[in-house]
UniProtKB/TrEMBL annotation, chain A:
This is Cytochrome c oxidase subunit 3. The keyword Membrane applies. Residues 1-337 form the Heme-copper oxidase subunit III family profile domain. Belongs to the cytochrome c oxidase subunit 3 family.
UniProtKB/TrEMBL annotation, chain B:
This is Cytochrome c oxidase subunit IV. One of its GO terms (cellular component) is plasma membrane. The keyword Transmembrane helix applies. It comes from the Bacteria. It comes from Flavobacterium lacus. InterPro entries: Cyt_c_oxidase_su4_prok.
Amino acid sequence: MGATVTTTEEKIWDGGNEPMGVSYGKMMMWFFILSDALTFTGFLAAYGFSRYKFADSWPIADEVFNHFPFLHGSDLPMLYVALMTFILIFSSVTMVLAVDAGHHMKKSKVAFYMFLTVIGGLIFVGSQAWEWKNFIKGEYGAIETKGGSIIQFVDAEGKRYKVSDLAVTLPKDRVQHESKNGIWFTSEASLPDYSVAEVIEGFKANPNVLVRTQEAYFDKNDKKGVHPTLNKEKHKTILTREESLARLNDAVYVVQGASLVRNEYGSKQFANFFFFITGFHGFHVFSGVVINFIIFLNVILGTYEKRRSYEMVEKVGLYWHFVDLVWVFVFTFFYLV
Amino acid sequence: MAHEHNLAIFRGRLKFKSNEQKIWGVLILLSIITAIEVVLGIYKPVGLMSPWLTPFEGGLGAVLMNILLSAFIFLIPLNLIFLVLTIVKAYYITWDFMHMRDEKASLRRSVVWTFVFLALYIALIFLLEGDYIYEIYKTSFIKWNF
């Protein structure tokens, strides 16, 4: 097919001219990127829909994503994602440098910069995996109520309190059902480490602990059952001790970490969108790394040197920058806004 | 081909000597913008946490003003700043890393305008609908927080 061969002698398409001044492959890469960008727009718009819908009860990103490697237990919101963003932008830079070196037909320079780009991509995917691990494992745990709301615990100063510190040990009343028992060979998910009864007993035994709901606190709202001193505008509402005990009567599940069914951070949609959008983006990064690696091998083998054109590097470069571009928006809408 | 690069950014106010220098320059710009975002995101200045204007009330004129100035009425300034900075970053990634600056206007327009139109359209529909359901949850007789 003449149309897909990229040589310097024959740059025109089969019809005899070159629409929009670009080669066939590059133009199609642009239109693929356009359609992929619209897919991500759809996802982010759906995320925005859920956020607007649950505007007052959406989890606060700074409280969820506040881990940094090797600094356990310290509250460091934003820094890790900022680092990830920087890594991805930097790997974009090495990619443009590779494209630039390709224009000057410097084979070894192209190979070197492509290699750096692949490494940057791998570091980013690894960072995302670490982020997912923290998100899935969770930190404080929470209780889900009959209506599906999440309630969390705080101490007398309003600091978060772990469910694991709260629960007392009661005699076990229930064992995990396994497929070897019973006749239908079905099993259930592993039981949480603490039962609801254990958490409630622990709560009753510890008079300093209070319940924090999903709802944002607004000064103008009704103050019934709301803690008089601990609450801050637009932060999650902390209840009085009496109201906390009343709210715990509706407790159904102990939630630790996050899954697609429920998560300890709040709205169920939050974890679903997080997994789906960052997962889809991470998949793009991964495929970008694979494609970059293939092109890197081709550069080393001298394929483009023989072709007298490094346009393939430019085309994968477009894809790689697009991945970076999407991350800029994911960063804004998941972590900043 | 794309050997001739347009080496000026900021509408020609900042010119670079080579394409390589321009790339580093753009990296510095993007890093500065990200740093500003992170600092604002961590400290969340109180002055930027509530909208600058309250909605206009009254007849058609007020409705029109609410639409025209919606970014200042319904968004808190902090989020507005984040949005603008994100679009600035996206602009420089597309124009300088993806070399949109060097492409013909026909290619640039067919990619960028298509995206901008459809993205604004779907965002408008989804966000208006989401806000509508938020109002329903808040004001009608649905109890969901129990």
